[in-house]
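ARCHIVE CARD
Drawer: 12
Card no.: 0347
Subject: one protein chain, sequence and derived structure
Cross-reference: see card 0346
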Amino acid sequence: MNGKLHILVILLLGIMLLAWAPAPPAGAQESADTVDSVTPESPADENPAAEGPASESPASESPAAGAAEVESATGETPGPEKTGLFDSLKISGTLNSSYQFRSYDGQDDSDIYEYFSLRLRDIVKDRVDGAFSMYWHEDLDGGSTIQGSEWYDPFLDIDQAYGTRFRFYTGYLDFKGLGFDDSRLRVGRQFLEDIDYAHFDGASYRFSPLDPLEVTLFGGRPVTFYSSSHGDAFYGADVRYRFTPQTKVGARYYRYDAEPYNDDLAAVEVWHMFTPELQTHAEFSLLDADPYLFQNDWYFRWDEYDFDAVAQVVRLFSEISDQTINFNPYFPLLHGYEPFTYGSTLFTKGLNEYVSLNAGFDFRVTDGGLDPVAEATNRDYVRGTLGAEFYPVKQVTLSVNGEFWSVDSGDEFTGVTGEVEYKPCKGWTLAAGAEYGEYVQEYMDEFLLFFGQEKVFRITPDVVTYYARVKWQPTGKVYTAARFEVEDNSLDEDNWYAFQLQVGVNF
C-alpha cells in the first residue's frame, strides 16, 4: 500500500469515527419563541450520485457536567444550554466499496472502486450546510503485454486509458437566508441538476423574490475529467414561474466559453398537469441563435386498471460538430452529431397481484444524405421490448424480458433475459439468471473497398451469459453484495469470467 493510499484510508476512518462519535455535551435549549426554534429541511443535493439517508442526532442532549438546574417562574426546568460551536451539526454520508475480478483469454484483472459522500447539515444552525463526494479507482495489477512491447489489455477502461484514479465530484457549502428567507448560495464544486446537469467549480444563487417566482444565477469553471478546462467559463441564469398549481414555465440561458469555441444556449420550458394522472413537459432551445432541440415528455397512469405509460419525442434540428465539450464531447472520436428524430414509448400493466407486463418501442431516424463517416456514427434504428414479471409467492419474483434491435445496414440484435429472485428472510436477496444475445452484423472490408471490391461480410455471434448474485442487508445502514457471471461467445474459444464484491455503509 503506497503513501497516498495510507493517507486516504486514515482520512476516511477519521471521518467515520467523527460521524459515529457521541455528540458533545450541550447547554441550554433555545427559547421556543425564537425564529430558529425549528430547523428547516435543507435543499436536496443536486449531485446525480445518490447519497445515503441522513442520520439525525438526538433531538435533546444531556446537560453539561456540573451545570446547575435553574427553576423557571412556572416551576419548569429549562433544557440544557447549548454553548458549543458545532452543537447543531449533523453528519451523514455513504461509503461504497467494490472489488472486481475479471478473467479472459488467459489474463486476469483486479480493481477496487470507492465512492464516498459526506453531508454536513447545520454547520451553523439554519444557516450553513455542506457536502462532499468523491470516487477512487485503483487497478491492482496493471495491464498485460504480449509479443514483447506490444500492448494488449482486454480490460482497459476509460479511467486506465486516461490515468484517472481520483474523481472529485462535489465539495461545496450552502449559505441559506442571504437576501431572501428561502435563498441558497452554493459555493464550490457542484452539479446543477435542472441546468442540463452542469458540473462546475463556482457559485450558484437560488432565491425567490416573489412566491411563484424562482431565480437561479450561476457561474464558474466547467469540470471535465478527461480534458483540460483551464481558461474555460460557464455562466447563466434560470427563471421559473408557477402560474397555477398545475402550470409552471421556465426560461434559462447559459454561455460556455472554451477558446476557440463559444456556445450560447437559450431554452424555454413548460410543465402542465392536466390531472394527477396525466402530466407533460416540453422544452425548446436555441444554440448560438439557431434552433437546437425540442423535447416533449408525457406521463400517464390509470390506477383503477394498474396501467402506466411514458412517451417521449426528441428532435435535433441542426448538426452539432466541433463545438464546446458541453454539447459534443465525443467529436474527436465520433465526429458530428447529425439532425435526427427520436421517439419512445413504455407501457406497464398489472394483470393481477401475480402478473405484471411491460412493452416498449423506440426509434431513431436521421435526416439522411450523410457522408460515409457520418453514416457510421449516426445510425438509424428501431427497438422493441417485451417483458413480464410473475409473483407466485411473496418471496419469489420471476421475470423474463425480450429485446430486438434493427439497425440500418443490415445489423440486428435479439436478446432474451430470464431471472429468478428469492428473498428467504428479511435482509437477504438471492437471484440467478441467464441472458442470450444473437448479433447479426454486416460490414464491408475497407481494404477491399480500396481495390474497388464491395464485398459484404456477415457475422452472427451468439452470446450467453449466466449470472448469480446475493445481497445481505442486516440493517438499513449496512449492506454487502456479490455477483458472479460467465459469458460464452460462440466465436471465441475463451469464456469471460467476472466476480464483484460490494460493501456499503450509510451513516
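Annotation on reverse: The CA atoms of residues 58 and 146 lie 60 Å apart. DSSP finds five helices and 25 strands in the chain.
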